Amino acid sequence: MTSIDRLSALLERFRVRAHLFHSGPLCGVTRLDALPGRGFLHVLRRGELVVTHRAGAGAPRRIEVREPSVLFYPRPVAHEFYNAPAEGSDFTCASLDFDGGDRHPLARALPALVLLPSRRVQGLEQALALLFAETDRVRCGHRLLADRLFEVVLLQLLRWLLDHPDEGGISAGLLAGLSDPKLARALVAVHEDPGRAWSLERMAAEAGMSRSAFAVRFRAVVGETPAEHLSNWRLAIAQAQLRQGRSIKAIATELGYANPSALSRVFAQRVGTSPRGWLRSLQEPGTASP
Predict the structure, then answer these.
(1) Of 154, 162, 220, 269, which sees the most CB atoms within 10 A?
(2) Which fold has domain 16-163?
(3) d(C-alpha 44, C-alpha 93), whole Å
(4) Can you tell me the distance from the alpha carbon of 89 to that of 44, in angstroms, rounded to the nearest whole number?
């Protein structure tokens, strides 16, 4: 694939923030619950462990991990660890907070669990060495630095998945589209400039394909039509910016809608309520953001 940055536009608009919460031995059974908008990133440096999931979670019921590995949960999935390393700082974990929760494009595009031996991801071992150097002992700022290093590890994993979608369990979806040399050019162009007057012809031209071939390939690989992807991308941006306190008028102009009413109509059709009603729902106790 010709040089193209397939991740920056996505992750600049929709951040993923890592937070170190464990480093060291685990005793007995350790259970991690699923919380809305939260994922996990676990790193096993040495030893073995068993991880289990509930039926219907989208991940195998039982997995044995027998070599240094990374376990990445992009969506809320409850899981339990058995027989994790009982001595030393050979197991470290971070929670992942996805901007937009379940509507984060990566959370929607990835499988429930990505499990990779560390040796398979080029450059990952160096980042993990730095990570464990920070988690092995307490030093000034070690928690903040560990958080950033977990984010580096995550970015390296995503790069690897873009280059090896089949090995990473990526089927149809956004990452599959970004892994396609031609579709990636159109997707990145849309992600970087969502307010442009995108037509099917214009997107196909970015991909260097005919209109009909582009439409068929896009639907097969990404799992939605180009128009649906554009609308969903704009809607995800609108929700993120509404959370930040921006006005629907300013957002509509930037996203290429003729007026705020046009954006509000699309918003209500897709979300089931007006932007104002949706914002109110986020403020209600016990209400998870859609």
Answers:
(1) 154
(2) Jelly Rolls (2.60.120)
(3) 9
(4) 9
Spatial separation of the C-alpha atoms in residues 1 and 221, rounded to whole Å: 17
Answer yes or no: are the C-beta atoms of 155 and 21 closer than 8 Å: no
Q: In which order are the strands placed within the sheet that holds 91-98?
A: 16-23, 91-98, 38-44, 69-73, 114-117
Q: What is the pLDDT of residue 290?
A: 42
Domain boundaries, the chain: 16-163, 180-283
Domain 180-283 is classified in which CATH homologous superfamily? Homeodomain-like (1.10.10.60)
The predicted structure's pLDDT at residue 288? 45
Beta bridge partners of 73: 40
Residue that has been written with the tokens 């873009």 in this structure: 162
Q: Give the Cβ contact number of residue 207 at 10 Å.
A: 21
CA separation (Å) from 42 to 23, 122, 162, 242, 269?
A: 10, 18, 20, 32, 38
SS3 for the chain is CCCCCCCHHHHHHCCEEEEEEEECCCCCEEEECCCCCEEEEEEECCCCEEEEECCCCCCCCEEEECCCEEEEECCCCCEEEECCCCCCCCEEEEEEEECCHHHCHHHHHCCCCEEEEHHHCCCHHHHHHHHHHHHCCCCCCHHHHHHHHHHHHHHHHHHHHHHCCCCCCCCCCHHHHHHCHHHHHHHHHHHHCCCCCCCHHHHHHHHCCCHHHHHHHHHHHHCCCHHHHHHHHHHHHHHHHHHCCCCHHHHHHHCCCCCHHHHHHHHHHHHCCCHHHHHHHHHCCCCCCC
